[in-house]
Amino acid sequence: MIDWIKNAPEITDPGYQPKDDLRHRAADGGRARDSLFWQVIMPDHELGFQCYLYLTGTGKAGFNLILWGTERKPYVLELVQGDVPDTMDFDDFRLGDLRVRQPADQKTARIAFESDKVKLDYSFEGFHAPFSYRSNPDGLPSWFADNRLEQSGWVKGYIEWDGKRIELDRIGHRDHSWGVRHWQVPQHWKWLVAYAPDASRIVNAWIWMAKGEWGVGGYVVRDGELVPIASVDQKAAFDDDMTQRSIDVQITDIRGGTCSMQMERFGLVKLPTGGRHATMIMEAACRAKIDGRDAAGQFECQWPQSYLDAMIELNKTSR
């Protein structure tokens, strides 16, 4: 395990309550929801893994569990929706074949899943206090969430699929947000997480554009200390179908310190969402470098589907 990483003393109060890692029940007809996310990227196996769970105040729930690599199709894509009783909370949560045990300690989680395609046991233990984008100079926009917990940590367990088994004993990441997400507001975002195997360097960066303005959230970990990000210069490369290929990021933290990060995709999965405000989220599993140190990472892009379609068509006609 990694030694506990201390937060920089300049970090503002993240606004977490003792039970914020449990369920939030808003009396708004189900518009507000909890969103929980766990991941681990494994360049040595050319694999990316994530599990995303949402739960509304009315009990409607759904999750995706994805294992992907260099192939066009993910190796595993489990999608489940259903309803859970009001008495159920994240410290003992079940939906279909998924079981979650995430207590109110703001530090640990365990996710288990078993189907005819995959078997998963994923245990997470954070090695720094949960971070909120409220602690960044640009803050957490109200269209995104009431609050959002981001945490890097150690993952143990295993994944089995198609006669293969990968043991998990490495760094991963989780987040938990709650509130109402207004999908019509963001014009684009990039969410990045990367980590050196020894945790000497970790980056979590969220770069968003909404209402014509840019904002940045996240943190850098350097040699045992976590410092919030103040600004990001970034240059991404995209294929003709607008899938993200790579990104070069230059980060300045709130102390004026700098960090350089490069990410290169080895695997991609697309997660379209239909409806009135149709959105495409694309997840790239990446090899990375942080200040020249080898790292693993995930590079997510969000686009309004109509804009994405227009750009893909433009790329076709302008070759």
UniProtKB/TrEMBL annotation:
* Annotated Pfam families: DUF7064, DUF7065
Q: Where is the DUF7064 domain?
A: 182-304
Q: Which domain of life is it from?
A: Bacteria
Q: Which InterPro entries match?
A: DUF7064 (IPR055492), DUF7065 (IPR055493)
List the residue ranges of the region (Disordered). 1-24
The DUF7065 domain extends over 86-181
Q: Which SUPFAM superfamilies match?
A: AttH-like
Entry protein name: Hydroxyneurosporene synthase (CrtC)
Please name the source species.
Mesorhizobium australicum
Q: Mind giving the lineage of the organism this protein is from?
A: Bacteria, Pseudomonadati, Pseudomonadota, Alphaproteobacteria, Hyphomicrobiales
